Automatic annotation (TrEMBL):
This is GTP-binding protein. It holds the Pfam family DUF4416. InterPro entries: DUF4416. It comes from the Bacteria.
């Protein structure tokens, strides 16, 4: 019989895309006030996999990911998504969004995003929010799934998330060493089973 154990703390990651790159500093400040210091930032990437958002936000659009130092409990994801929804509203101009913010988290075995839209593979996590399993880590690399958003399937973004995972594994070991009772009976964070 399996015994319930506390889950590993997760590495918070917030992706966003926008037209006006000059907004990035304001967005970073707002997010840091709520999630703590930034640990890593991706390069700017063109967000050109769809034209869906151009009518509302204009074009061209650019994507960036921000990674935050403090690890979080996985159960915070819904509240974080609601917070980023509020930030989107705060930054609106003339009732139009200027930025789309996608919070999520990374674990040794997967990368998860939060969304307000239900779908077959998404799991409800409360507060009107669903968890989207976006990438899995298997056989030493992140792997896409049939429903992975095209921009998150981009090799450059996956390479960045791999660097984030490497840093997270170090942070996780330190966290577990600092709080050895945080995960009673848990395996080493390197022990990913079939996901290693």
């Amino acid at each position: 019989m399996s015994r319930p154990q506390p889950p590993k703390p997760a590495k918070p990651i917030v992706g966003f895309f926008l037209k006006e790159r000059s907004l990035a500093a304001d967005i970073a400040g707002m997010l840091q006030a709520r999630l703590g210091p930034v640990d890593m930032i991706s390069p700017w990437l063109d967000f050109d996999f769809t034209s869906y958002y151009e009518k509302e936000m204009g074009a061209p659009l650019f994507r960036r990911l921000m990674v935050f130092k403090p690890l979080i409990e996985q159960t915070r994801l819904a509240a974080i998504k609601r917070m980023t929804n509020e930030l989107e509203t705060t930054l609106q101009r003339g009732g139009q969004r200027r930025v789309n913010i996608d919070p999520g988290y990374l674990l040794p075995e997967r990368f998860v995003l939060a969304t307000g839209k239900n779908f077959t593979h998404r799991i409800y996590i409360g507060e009107g929010i669903y968890a989207d399993l976006t990438l899995i880590y298997r056989k030493g690399a992140f792997r896409t799934l049939p429903w992975t958003y095209p921009d998150y399937a981009d090799r450059r973004l996956i390479d960045f998330l791999t660097l984030v995972r490497n840093k997270y594994m170090i942070d996780l070991k330190k966290e577990l060493a600092r709080k050895p009772d945080a995960l009673p009976g848990s395996a080493s964070p390197d022990a990913g089973g079939e996901f290693s």
